Amino acid sequence: MNTTLNTIFARHQHRDGALLPILHDIQHELGYVPDEAVPLIARALNLSRAEVHGVITYYHHFRRTPPDRHVVHVCCAEACQANGSEALANHAAARLQQGDIAMEPVYCLGLCSIGPAIQIDETTLHARVTPEKFDALIAALGEQS
Ligand code: FES
């Protein structure tokens, strides 16, 4: 981690307002901003640890723990609800209770007429998702990993 941080510090340290670009780069490289990085960032920018910590916690964008490997967004907006997204969300929550796949609600994925809709990892959209189709998609995700 220290080599990565030093590279990032060297890239931005000389700039005014370097903290945010440094935090963005750390999250991009490591997937999150580890607590152990806070004192190193503070020293590099001549800030207090509280100042660095305050910025990290102020912006919800910054993660303080490693991300889940996969995120499944289940649409919970009105049109998908009319097509059974609530039951699908309950099924998904039970199915994903363990493991490293997170489920997050989302409010419209643009597939309103062919819901319920889900999106896997910000990239792949799926329509008319039944619990059985959901299980098959999650199983395929596990095989890819
Ligand atoms: S309401 Fe679910 S995709 Fe639009």
Description of the structure:
There is one protein chain. With 145 residues, the chain is of the alpha+beta class. The chain has two domains: 2-58, no CATH class; 70-144, 3-Layer(aba) Sandwich (Glutaredoxin). Helix content is 50%, strand content 12%. The chain is built from seven helices and four strands. It has helices spanning 2-12, 19-30, 37-45, 49-58, 78-82, 85-95, 131-144, and strands at 70-75, 101-106, 118-120, 124-126. Strands 2-1-3-4 form a four-stranded mixed beta sheet, with helices on one face. The two termini are 24 Å apart. Its cofactor is [2Fe-2S] cluster. Keywords: 2Fe-2S, Iron, Iron-sulfur, Metal-binding. Pfam families: 2Fe-2S_thioredx. [2Fe-2S] cluster binds at residues 75, 80, 108, 112. GO terms for molecular function: 2 iron, 2 sulfur cluster binding; metal ion binding; oxidoreductase activity.
Features:
binds FE2/S2 (inorganic) cluster, 2 domains, alpha+beta, elongated, 4 strands, four-stranded mixed β-sheet, 145 residues, Glutaredoxin
Basic shape: elongated
Strand content: 5-15%
CATH architecture of the largest domain: 3-Layer(aba) Sandwich
Compute the average pLDDT: 92
Could you tell me the number of beta strands?
4
Structural class: alpha+beta
The end-to-end span amounts to: 24 Å
SSE string: HHHHEHHEEEH
The gyration radius over C-alpha positions equals 20 Å
**Total domains, how many?**
2
Largest sheet: 4 strands, mixed
Strand order of the largest sheet: 2-1-3-4
- Distinct ligands, ions and cofactors found in the model: FE2/S2 (inorganic) cluster
Just give the CATH class of the largest domain: Alpha Beta
The parts where pLDDT drops under 50 for at least 5 residues are: none
CATH superfamily of the largest domain: Glutaredoxin
The number of helices is 7
Catalytic activity: a quinone + NADH + 5 H(+)(in) = a quinol + NAD(+) + 4 H(+)(out)
GO molecular function: 2 iron, 2 sulfur cluster binding; metal ion binding; oxidoreductase activity
Cofactor: [2Fe-2S] cluster
InterPro entries: NADP_DH_HndA-like (IPR028431), NuoE-like (IPR002023), NuoE_N (IPR041921), Thioredoxin-like_sf (IPR036249)
